[in-house]
Amino acid sequence: MPSLSHVHLFRRISLFLSLMLVMIYFMEPVSKANAAANDEERQETYEQLKSGKRIWTDKAYVKPEQPTVYLTFDDGPSKLTDRVLDILREEGVLATFFMLGEQVETYPEKVRQAVKDGHAIGNHTYNHKYNELYSSVATFWKQIEQTEQALDEAADVRTKLVRAPGGTFGNFDAFYYYYLDQAGFEVHDWNVDSGDSKRVGVPASEIIQTVKNGPFGDEVILLMHDGTGHEQTVKALPDIIRLFKAKGYAFAPLSPQVKPVHFSAGKIKWNRSVGQALHNKLSAEAGEQRLVFEEWNAEQEQGSTQQEAGGLQVQGPAEEVWSVQEQQVLKGTAFEGNNRNVGNQSMPFAPLEIILGSGKLLFEPGKYRMIDGHNLVPVRNLIEAMGGHAEWREGQHTAAVHYGSRVIEYDFSHHEMRVNQGGKQTVYHLPQMELRDGTVYVPLRKTVELLGSHIVSYGVDKDNGRMQVEVALTGGYAFTYGF
């Protein structure tokens, strides 16, 4: 005869198994419904792309405080790249090199030197052959992957910057943009063409005059080339740099925070099509690529060396809000950017104080994050300090934020954000958000704006060694929260 304890154990096991069967019974229809909804969404996306509509993930870009020129060089590296790097070093400016995979494999040491000098690296496909790249989006995607691998092997580099050979006009359709965007890449055309490739051997004087003709906007993305046969571009480069210096421009490398220039669609020159099966395949690969970027970011964060000065840890390039001068005030030493970190991920170097009406919210370094040039803060702390509340829906793997009439849902199962207000829902696919160690991190500026408030100012509290952000709240919500 079994003991009483064995009977209880048997009953507990039976109850557990019964509960599991009940859960499976009720969850199966939900899973099927979710799968059907996902299929319907994919079909809708496909139809929109097929009609020519461009679909973008939600992103935030940073406008520079002064007119800025982004010098870009295509088709390298080549034997000319060393001289270009020498000139840039002599003039004290940084640039962006959109490199071909086959050239990277030929001149890996030049890639490493460009990275060492602090320049940005971009992906310019593998072989630059238009008839291959634009006859099929699958071929274009494959060449992006080939060049990504070549850069990784040559200089341990991954880049989110992409430039289409010949530019996107007449070459890209909505599908090309969509897969690259979903993967986390930024496609950059240009708004000033130096004219150095309109024919063989364009003289330096003509290149300089073409650049002088502008147009000169607040942000100039200048197209040049450092590939074989562009000796005249190298000759013209010092005068071009001095031209922009005389006009008061700052120089900077491109980054994911720079709003890209995209040409208009134009009539597509190529006879091609994308079927539903290929769309599903490339969409999945784009999602895998985004995960690669995220994993790379995590590895860089764990493995990178941090500088310490004045009790503050510093790493990576300046966050969008803080000027280099402000960072120098905070940490009391020269600031050096590390352009090798994908997405410009860096460790916070100072406490972050958010002023919310009469209240304040303080985050010490390590309690908030800096990714892609933006402050990411714990959403629960932020929303409660603003006077709202947040909840975690475990079964849905979703954080829900309630603030006045607004509800924001951060869905980590589908990697999307849903903003609900007045019966209307807006969905942002692949938004900037993180779930790390049980804490949901969201971008400060974007979240504040989605909640109907706005940021009034940024600054530095030199006495306390803090970065400060002042938020104007709607509805008079505010109370003090700190740790």
TrEMBL record:
GO BP field = carbohydrate metabolic process
Q: Per its record, how is this protein called by name?
A: Polysaccharide deacetylase family protein
PROSITE patterns given in the database record: NODB
**InterPro entries assigned:** Cu_amine_oxidase-like_N, Glyco_hydro/deAcase_b/a-brl, Mao_N_sf, NODB_dom, Polysacc_deacetylase_ArnD
Higher taxonomy: Bacteria, Bacillati, Bacillota, Bacilli, Bacillales
Q: Which organism is it from?
A: Paenibacillus foliorum
Q: Name one Pfam family in it.
A: Polysacc_deac_1
Give the GO molecular function terms.
hydrolase activity, acting on carbon-nitrogen (but not peptide) bonds
Where does the record place the NodB homology domain?
67-252
